[in-house]
Amino acid sequence: MVKASTALLPFKIPFTTYWHGIQGRKVLAQYFQSILTERRQKPSSDILGELCLARNEDGAQLSDEDIINHLIFLLMAAHDTTASTLTSLFYELAAHPEWQEKLREESRAFAQSGEMRFERLVELKYLDLAIKETLRLHTPLIMIPRKTTQTLEFGAYTLPPDTALSILIHHHHYEGQIFEQPEQFDPLRFDEARTEHKKCPHAYVPFGGGKHHCIGYSFAEMQIKLVMHQILLRYQWNIAPGYQMVYRHIPIQEPKDGLPVLLSSIG
Ligand code: HEM
């Protein structure tokens, strides 16, 4: 389904990427429909339960179709973006073993200093900086499509209403006037002493901006921290000398070759 969102041929011709996406969507819609009646009677404590209880401005419940559409969108928005970030972080930490070790030390100290609680995750400061830098270098969504609703003056350009345009996040993140040596993996650029990303509003936008800013960014950061913290405590990993990850950029950044690594357990 995610791949179908950027399919070159958006026609329902059997066995094309688009067709597979449509089939996948049907499977999900049928599955959600099959559990919806029961969940409406007994709402669960998850997002599906919340959507069953939600009311619009007139006090009406969301239709089955609305709930199914929201769930399918959430799956698309939440899963692959988070997986993409973890994959790129895994790669950068293999390419920069000194950072991998620094984060492992931080995770060990964190694990030994008390029980895991959400409020304590801020203590994983270097991991936080490494996640930010990974989201800059390998932003999962490289561009955001938009359409003008009114005439827009931008620099020397005048765009009439209804013009399709793309915001290329990837381009913002490699802007040399904002980020020093933008090609380098340098998590400390986000540290309080430097805060390069604050030089200009919207210079750093892995989660978008404005009205449609990602609603799941905090949840995504929490998940990435939790997963990486556990991996750092249990494993050490390397890539082959000289290996460079080659990306498939759309619809969501991922390694073309599945990112081969050598993973070893830590005693
Ligand atoms: C690292 C992980 C993630 C990245 C990089 C990311 C990125 C983005 C971006 C760039 C947008 C803006 C799209 C636009 O302006 O058209 C967005 C919107 C959105 N994201 Fe995320 N996202 C992530 C994780 C999540 C998670 C975990 C959830 C849900 C639990 C989520 C839910 C949403 C939703 C519902 C929107 C639409 C908001 C709206 O249109 O008002 N995202 N995300």
Q: How would you characterize the overall build of this protein?
A:
With 267 residues, the chain is mostly helical. It has two domains: 1-62, no CATH class; 76-139 and 180-265, Cytochrome P450 (Cytochrome p450), CATH 1.10.630.10. 43% of the residues lie in helices and 10% in strands. It contains seven helices and eight strands, in the order H-H-H-H-H-E-E-E-E-H-H-E-E-E-E. The strands form four sheets. The protein has a two-stranded antiparallel sheet. A two-stranded antiparallel sheet has the order 2-3. Helix 1 (17-41) crosses helix 3, helix 4 runs antiparallel to helix 5 and helix 4 crosses helix 7 (217-234). It starts with 16 loop residues before the first helix and ends with a strand. The structure holds protoporphyrin IX containing FE. Residues 74, 77-78, 81-82, 85, 140-141, 144, 206-208, 212, 214-216, 219-220 line the site of protoporphyrin IX containing FE (HEM). Protoporphyrin IX containing FE (HEM) is lined by residues 74, 77-78, 81-82, 85, 140-141, 144, 206-208, 212, 214-216, 219-220.
